[in-house]
């Protein structure tokens, strides 16, 4: 049977590698953001200035996850392996997604509430935070958008709400086409970001549910779906034109640079909103470039270590804030403390995340070597189930490299 070109494992290896880069960005941001002040970019402090600029923007790794999530969730539907045509299909998707996302999420929520609650356990404030976290409704409150017990969970809440919207997007694409859905979603999200940024909230800044929540970020997931559609179309074309990778890559880099400039320097709110949209567009362009040809990027993105980090990114993301607060409290640690503890912190978070990935995320999977990409390509896969991965690649239907079928 002929294998579809868009489903080859090498292509998914690129996605793993990009997820690995994104999780490194997020962890480095949380480790070093207290020390990344505004350093002047003159020869004497050039390195410090570059470091500060990178760390200050490394939080954008979360938005890279959102684009990748849209891509990988849509891929099996775009290839026709799965369909959403009736209520039973929607329910099946929700069950599949809940089984994949919620066990680790709820465990991390309970640990966070027990160890890092900002109010007395059992108090009214604690109960409100617990209810918001367990229901994921906290992402609709400007004061609880970043839960005090574990602020990184905000993006997990956004991901869960996108999962709830995903079947509706599939139906909308089938009815109106992906170009219309992308255009409408980008426009709607830009309006929400503009309005939310115009609404000052005391002690918070802006109305975060509109700016950073599902209202303002849904377009990023949809951009990932668009990349998936374009990539499958390009793979199915009878006579494919060669992809000029260097040109596409340079375009993505230039768009990304312009986006960062607008985000930081535009005197108009509309310009800053446009910068946010442009950054996600630039990464979507980079993703398409990496998937379509990838001679410039694939040797790096498909390295084993980077791919494994990408595979474990949900566990790393979920646990790193808890471990960091206990080992290297951001409010009290100095740069010397952070540098001294960085190595043991890294080892501990990798070990904990590996156990979490193996026994919480995929405890039902027997082929642990496949999970860690250790099985030889020519070895037959063991029967097992691997489901949808948050911030992760979903369509593990064997032609996906080194992972068992769902």
TrEMBL record:
Per UniProt, what is one GO molecular function of this protein? acyltransferase activity
Entry keywords, A to Z: Acyltransferase, Membrane, Transferase, Transmembrane, Transmembrane helix
User: Could you tell me which residue ranges the Acyltransferase domain spans?
Assistant: 15-355
Could you list the residue ranges forming a coiled coil in this record?
none
Keyword tRNA-binding attached = no
Regions crossing the membrane: 20-38, 50-77, 97-115, 151-170, 177-198, 210-231, 243-262, 274-297, 304-322, 342-360
User: What protein name does the entry list?
Assistant: Acyltransferase
Q: Which organism is it from?
A: Bradyrhizobium jicamae
